[in-house]
Design goal:
The structure holds two protein chains of two kinds. By secondary structure, chain A is an alpha/beta fold. Chain A has two domains: about 220 residues, Rossmann fold; about 130 residues, Rossmann fold (3-Layer(aba) Sandwich), CATH 3.40.50.2300. Chain A is about 45% helix and about 15% strand. Chain A has a five-stranded parallel β-sheet, with helices on both faces. Chain A has a four-stranded parallel β-sheet with strand order 7-6-8-9, sandwiched between helices. A three-stranded antiparallel β-sheet of chain A has the order 10-13-14, covered by helices on one side. Chain A is elongated, with a radius of gyration of 22 Å. The termini of chain A are far apart. Chain B has one domain: ABC transporter involved in vitamin B12 uptake, BtuC (Orthogonal Bundle). Helix content of chain B is about 75%, strand content about 5%. Chain B starts with a helix and ends with a helix. The chains are: A alpha/beta, B mainly alpha. Chains A and B meet through helix 1, strand 2, helix 3, helix 4 and helix 6 of A and helix 3 and helix 13 of B.
Chain lengths: ~375, ~325
């Protein structure tokens, strides 16, 4: 038994030592490549590998090659924490781009903060960077921004009394909580609220309840997966004529396929990446979004997803910071990440600061309307 | 060797050596963390082994108790200002109470029915933890206040290595004591034949509930340790996959072998770390290894090796 243990310990030690050139700049990534969040983690991994290869082929960063170390946490926060410790202690990475879900990111955050190694998370929730942790950053929009974008659009169209139906999955619940925090700021009153489980197949009762509320002008549906598609279809079947808003959680072609005819007229906020083709040429985001989309789709033969885009943004912000820091000093890199200004990523323009470790503004979201089974810009 | 292992003190000393010796040479806090995880899992697995390996009662929801222990040290200090050191026994009491209340009706079931009922319990705990956002922080979890002893914050993996190692040793000693007592003999009687045990005068229902409660307390302590080591808890700690992993650790290491519980836990915690060498193939490798062990070491790693050793002797 002792022999097995020493054997394993030896192979672990070998693992640490096997890694290449001391001249390389090592960056880490703990991603949920398998497990329930794999649809997020997989494009992230592919994106990171693809661009690290590209950067190295062009001569690396400041003449040094990047070396990417990827670990798969399977969506488990405890495993993620172990791999985070491993990246810091064994692989001695200078920084990390990863953390696919909010749960794994929150579990890893303290480890990087303690070790003073910068960590750029790819997960959604606002709690990752609020309150600000010195070494933790993130690139995706937050669910609060999605709420604000929707409420902004409602206000513009003159809706002040709305209903809300949300999923009870992590995404739906988190976004719902953010929405009820910011609705008053836009002068919007939530008249009625309903929820559904992630595996429910019929939301007619909840929608009938909502419809019965007098004075309702629009309905918002924070949710993820198939739930929102069912809501959209039931909505149409019940003949409810009020405008329906979906969240960025369903900003994929799959949603339109699932909801069919009923999807027409639905509005939702989404990253520019999804509609790169139809953005006006004057939009400064267009070239970046188009280039990423083309490269990802050619390399993987899969439709582009915003999640991979977040990994692209994270990697490029980090590479920019390493270049400005002039070397592989984690503390200097952190300072430079915080000074990121005007970086055009797939999610929008990043302007980080000491108080804002995400740096995106509401304009990063585009309000889309589904027309004839396709995306169209609403404004 | 066999008689050697059977001696309680010697096997305890062996476990102590397995904790102390690596602790002296491990190079970084990453290794200490992996070691601490091994001990924490082993503690929970010893508890489950008492139930599964000795009493022969299946539980597919044991991670539920890990979850209760973990969230006790997360919620009580954060929401009620309970000192962390008190929250750990509070979690133990709560787990014991829950196990006692549900144990009575659930343990009347046998075989698949018992498996399904315990599975339901585990899923229920995970669902409550994921849905009571106001209390638990929902699916993204919540952060855990660090343990403070004499004003020192205990958060280094190295500290937790020694704490969880000590707890494992204590847990092992208690389990050995229990097995050597009349209750332990009643447990084994129950495993071999419930009817025979009843005829021999064993209060079957009481014994089953007792061991269920004990195993729940083991899981709860492990959960508390895990939460304090990580400083953050998520509902996956109580998830179904975690329950399955615990059962796998029991079966791999060897049902009815306390030492096997430690080996099973070490195997499933360390191996995925070592297998990252194979990148995309790590899950495949892990699966193949487990299948091979189940084919060639059918009674689990420790009992099979033990038997082989005995055969060679004689």
């Amino acid at each position: 038994m002792m022999k097995t243990f020493t054997g394993i310990a030896a192979s672990l030690a070998l693992l640490g030592a096997s890694a290449a050139n001391a001249q390389d700049i090592k960056i880490g990534a703990v991603l949920s490549v398998t497990g329930p969040a794999s649809f997020l983690g997989e494009p992230e991994e592919k994106t990171l590998k693809m661009y690290v290869d590209e950067i190295n082929a062009k001569g690396g960063v400041k003449g040094k090659k990047l070396q990417l170390v990827v670990y798969d946490d399977g969506g488990d926060a405890n495993k993620a924490r172990t791999f985070a410790t491993r990246l810091i202690e064994e692989d001695k990475v200078v920084a990390m781009v990863g953390g696919t879900t909010t749960g794994t990111s929150m579990a890893m955050g303290p480890a990087f903060d303690d070790a003073q190694v910068p960590f750029i998370s790819l997960a959604g929730a606002v709690v990752i960077v609020e309150p600000v942790k010195k070494y933790v950053f993130k690139t995706p929009h937050t669910d609060r921004m999605a709420c604000e974008k929707i409420f902004e659009d409602m206000k513009k169209r003159g809706f002040t009394k709305i209903g809300m139906i949300s999923g009870t999955d992590g995404f739906g619940k988190s976004m719902r909580d953010e929405c009820v925090k910011v609705n008053a700021k836009f002068g919007i009153e939530i008249l009625g609220e309903e929820t559904y489980g992630p595996r429910d197949t019929d939301m007619t009762p909840q929608l009938t309840n909502l419809r019965a509320k007098a004075g309702m002008q629009a309905v918002i549906n924070p949710g993820f997966g198939q739930g929102p598609a069912i809501v959209t279809r039931n909505y149409k079947q019940l003949g409810i004529n009020l405008p329906l808003y979906q969240s960025h959680g369903v900003a994929s072609k799959q949603f339109i396929e699932l909801a069919g005819e009923a999807a027409n007229g639905v509005r939702l906020p989404a990253a520019a990446l999804l509609v790169a083709d139809i953005l006006p040429d004057s939009d400064p985001q267009k070239p970046v979004a188009l280039a990423y989309k083309k490269k990802f789709e050619e390399a993987t033969k899969q439709p582009v997803s915003t999640f991979g885009g977040h990994a692209y943004d994270g990697l490029m912000i980090l590479v920019g910071a390493i270049e400005r820091a002039g070397g592989a000093d984690s503390k200097k890199i952190r300072d430079e990440i915080e000074k990121t200004k005007g970086f055009m990523g797939t999610a929008g323009i990043f302007n980080m600061s000491a108080t804002d470790h995400m740096g995106l503004e509401l304009s990063a979201f585009k309000m889309l309307e589904i027309k004839n089974g396709n995306w169209a810009l609403a404004d | 060797m066999a008689r050697f292992l059977a001696n309680r003190w010697i096997s305890l000393a062996l476990v102590a050596a397995l904790i102390v010796l690596p602790g002296l040479i491990l190079p970084s806090s990453y290794y200490f963390r992996v070691g601490a995880l091994v001990f924490i899992s082993a503690l929970a697995v010893i508890g489950l082994n008492l139930l599964l390996g000795f009493a022969g009662q299946v539980s597919l929801g044991h991670a539920g108790f890990v979850g209760i222990g973990a969230y006790a040290v997360a919620i009580l200090p954060a929401r009620f200002d309970v000192p962390v050191l008190l929250a750990v026994p509070a979690g133990m009491v709560l787990s014991a109470l829950v196990a006692f209340v549900i144990g009575r009706p659930i343990l009347r079931l046998k075989g698949h029915f018992l498996a399904v009922a315990t599975l339901g319990f585990g899923v229920l705990v995970a669902m409550v933890l994921a849905n009571e956002v106001g209390w638990t922080g929902g699916p993204d979890g919540m952060s855990v206040k660090r343990l403070e002893i004499f004003g020192e914050r205990i958060r280094q993996p190295r500290d937790w290595y020694w704490i969880s190692g000590t707890l494992l040793l204590i847990g092992m000693a208690i389990a050995q004591n229990l097995l050597a007592s009349p209750t332990g003999r009643a447990l084994r009687a129950l495993h071999d034949s419930e009817i025979a045990a009843r005829v021999a005068g064993v209060d079957v229902a009481r014994i089953k509930v007792t061991v269920f409660v004990i195993s729940a307390v083991y899981a709860s302590v492990a959960g508390s340790c895990l939460a304090l080591l990580n400083g953050h808890v998520t509902p996956d700690a109580a998830g179904f996959l975690q329950s399955v992993e615990m059962v796998t650790m029991v079966v791999l290491g060897g049902m009815g072998s306390l030492f096997g519980s430690i080996i099973g836990a070490a195997f499933l915690v360390i191996l995925p770390q070592a297998l990252t060498l194979f990148h995309e193939y790590e899950h495949l490798m892990l699966g193949i290894l487990i299948i091979l062990i189940m084919i060639f070491l059918r009674d689990g790693i420790v009992p099979t090796l033990h038997r082989l050793l005995m055969e060679r002797r004689s």
